Amino acid sequence: MKVGNDGANDKRPNETRPGDESGESLPLTVRDQRFDIRIARDGTWFHEGDPIRRIELVKLFATVLRRDEAGDFWLVTPVERGRIVVEDTPFVAVEMAASGSGDEQALSFRTNLDEWVECGPDHPIRVVHNPENGEPTPYILIRNGLEARILRPVYYEMVDRADTRGHDGEAEVGVWSKKVFFALGRLLGE
Question: Which of 139, 35, 137 is nearest to 77 (CA)?
Fold first, then answer.
């Protein structure tokens, strides 16, 4: 049984409803808004200032998380998109698993949302050094411009598996994964 007009049960904004008097379908457009969602540096998701405690809900939100070319973060669905605040990265790498050794080694990382990625050409590691104190902060690409910050204990596990490559009086320290060498830092020659 149908109640109301054709758009009564359509939850999309008025300007995006299909059809008009001519019978043509209008294209579905995306409405932009700002969602009161923030991802803290430790990977905790907040809504209206309170932590989101249901991990299933956070995992669902993570599936629609996007990052644009300007570096802004959005939750994007077919009918709306909302900007969210991300303090550093949306994910945190909380565990590492390794198999093999040398350039045959493969490193896998588990995020705080239980997603595993294997480091390699499609999931590179990068390290940013703090200009004030030189402290390294490592990241791994998870997908589509979304990264995970590698937690300090996991970073130390990586360093334990590191190799050194030398050239021109300097040595590079890094790890191998899927036949790719990822530099973690440099050792200056004497």
Answer: 35
Identify whether the C-beta of residue 96 lies closer than 8 Å to the C-beta of residue 158.
yes
Structure-block tokens of residue 151:
């937690």
How far apart are the C-alpha atoms of 120 and 109, rounded to whole Å? Answer: 11
Are 158 and 150 within 8 A, CB to CB?
Answer: yes
Report how far residue 57's alpha carbon sits from residue 6's, in angstroms, rounded to the nearest whole number.
32
Element (H, E) at 158: helix 152-160
Torsion of CA 25, 30, 35, 40, to 10 degrees: 140
Question: How far is residue 166's CA from residue 97's CA, in Å, rounded to a whole number?
Answer: 27
Q: What is the pLDDT of residues 49-101, one digit of tens each?
A: 999 999 999 999 999 999 999 999 999 988 888 999 999 999 999 999 999 98
Burial zone of 150 (CB within 10 Å; 0-12 exposed, 13-18 middle, 19+ buried)? buried
> What's the burial of 85, exposed, middle or buried (CB within 10 Å: 0-12/13-18/19+)?
middle
The answer to whether 146 and 67 have CB atoms below 8 angstroms apart is yes
| pTM of structure | 0.78
